[in-house]
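ok so heres the complex, two chains, lmk if somethin looks off
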Amino acid sequence: DQQVKQNSPSLSVQEGRISILNCDYTNSMFDYFLWYKKYPAEGPTFLISISSIKDKNEDGRFTVFLNKSAKHLSLHIVPSQPGDSAVYFCAASWRGGNQFYFGTGTSLTVIP
Amino acid sequence: DTEVTQTPKHLVMGMTNKKSLKCEQHMGHRAMYWYKQKAKKPPELMFVYSYEKLSINESVPSRFSPECPNSSLLNLHLHALQPEDSALYLCASSQEGYNEQFFGPGTRLTVL
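and the predicted structre for the whole thing:
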């Protein structure tokens, strides 16, 4: 049972525009969320996190929004750059948990 | 040192071979993980070590055998693998099970 879902397998965005990647979860115990970026044949790289006490966290061009009532989070990248082209995974866990549950990933292509 | 290192980078083995994958981190993290990742899929958790003790084994076949010799090292011993075991094997570590995980670059395994 996939507890964390990313319903868009792929997304294409023009350079300079906003990229919005979405993630939904089903387990209401989840209270800590991560976004990872992955290039082919490399390990995932941690991007940004958010805990359930916040509804927004910002780091440079990356902002993550959390809507707990909808069990939904999104990653905004502004402005998008060609180097952002990668697969993005969201992951979720809960305090006291010892693993993260990963979404299925969204492949982002930023067109120059 | 904020890196997780993995060796070898690539490994080709026959179904009767015995080989080992190695992972090392010097961040003082107390949780270490093995994941398996197939193309276009999310990382699939295999094992979790917490304070050098195996805390999660996600029903992985016995042809995969993990070992945690000390808090910085994690091995994955491979024996009698099948071609369908060909994948990218990722090691990760985190401060505790609840914190963001840092991934190594992975070992690309091909079983002939």
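quick notes: Chain B touches chain A at residues 4, 6, 31, 33, 40-43, 45, 48, 50, 55-56, 88, 90, 92, 96-98, 100-106, 108 (CB under 8 Å). thats all i got rn
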